[in-house]
Design brief:
elongated; about 150 residues; homotetramer; 6-stranded antiparallel sheet; alpha+beta
């Protein structure tokens, strides 16, 4: 992986504060567990109220965590005053998300002035080991001067 | 749009019962409001606990509703005994999801024996009118004989 | 579909001239057959040297025509002096591309200052009728002041 | 990366023979340069007749090579008698494809009985060094008993 340098020395607190304003992350029980320049981990746990019809975590829950992880990986590299918006993402479900602990890791693969592209890997951890359960590619936009900040 | 015929005469109750087992849909306050062969609507409402950091609905909420709408649009055309799984989806966010009522409409565009492809449109309704806020393409799989049913 | 107005009165000649500089379109025998504000058709024909291993048109050929159709649909709405770049696209193959004449139609669904989102439908026409063979969603970027023009 | 074992001892010649029937790969000057279980490289070179309007390789050329690399990475793991079809792919363009030599590498990340998911990285090599210019995620299907073979 390419390694990146943050433009904003306060990138970590900025990312964590913005994450804490994402009320939906609290709703699904997700917390942000690691913030590095261009790389962010978000964790959540198996819970009955997050399931689809077969008892696995809903694909939308995985997508939500991976989208936030990708967005904050992108934000960690943005200049002070900028905000991040999701332009689009695509996610492949690779295996049923069975596991006690789920980690969505967002990593920047291309950081541009306007457009940043990230990978998001979702891994399930259980007593049986770890398993890659979903893979995302997300395109994020740097927004400046539109009254939005992060 | 192409119009489709259901193979299962009980497609509507089957879709509604499977949806009622998606506990995550209840968590985000989503209900299924229309079930036709190859076309399903899912509705939800603006709620503070579903927002991202700028106060709009989180992209993951839109994706969750659209994924379920696409999955059930696909299931409505499947033979009795089959189950539906999301292989992958891609969603573009077209405008901030501001609006009191959000409708995710899933529509089948190609129904195959194994693979079904759907569009998912997410529209926000407010006193200011209606607006297309997100557009999904989803690939769904028909699963038979693996101990899963819908 | 939403209808759009062009900002550049010369949008059609501008699109056609830019298309004529895409040497790859000539290589695959593609021509631009319709240019409206936000909507562009590109046509090509079945040819042995465009096939994959089973004798159908290669998915990359369909993607190439649909990407150009989407890019020029986006360009048709851009201000004079701007250039268009593809940020990303996704394409679903819906049926084998068997047919004498293939039309890729790009249509803008969201035109923003920086980001434009398009659908690209690929239809095969033969004596047996017409068939939707592929469906694209593409994200295009308006580029200004970087030494690129279209 | 996960490593995979081939089910078909003749996987390499089978992949190479199928590739040689993709006439479109010859049209764009692409050759297959490496075939391992679950991993395939396809190379091509900068050529004027493969360009878009700004003189860079057309995104469709990159997508074509990456789609074939992903498809053959998937085929390398399939049982004898099966054929591979592209269900869908998504590609992000990360940088202009400027470089003398382009390598599209397809790698399987999930090999299922019916559905295989691959990453496709496109790298440009020039005297200035190497650069990742595009990133694909592709979903491939194993087809058996429909009169298609690879």
């Amino acid at each position: 992986m390419t390694s990146f340098a943050a433009q904003d020395p306060n990138f970590e607190s900025r990312v964590r504060q913005s994450f804490s304003r994402q009320q939906f992350m609290a709703t699904i029980g997700a917390s942000i567990t690691r913030v590095e320049p261009g790389e962010v981990d978000i964790e959540l746990h198996q819970r009955d109220d997050l399931t689809q019809q077969h008892g696995f975590l809903h694909a939308g829950v995985l997508a939500s965590a991976a989208d936030s992880a990708c967005g904050y990986a992108a934000l960690s590299l943005m200049p002070p005053g900028a905000a991040v918006l999701s332009i689009e993402f695509k996610i492949n479900m690779l295996a049923p998300a069975a596991g006690d602990r789920i980690v969505a890791r967002g990593r920047v693969i291309r950081a541009g002035k306007t457009v940043t592209v990230c990978w998001g890997d979702v891994t399930a951890y259980s007593s049986a080991g770890e398993k890659l359960v979903a893979s995302m590619v997300a395109t994020m936009m740097t927004v400046q001067g539109r009254g939005l900040t992060d």
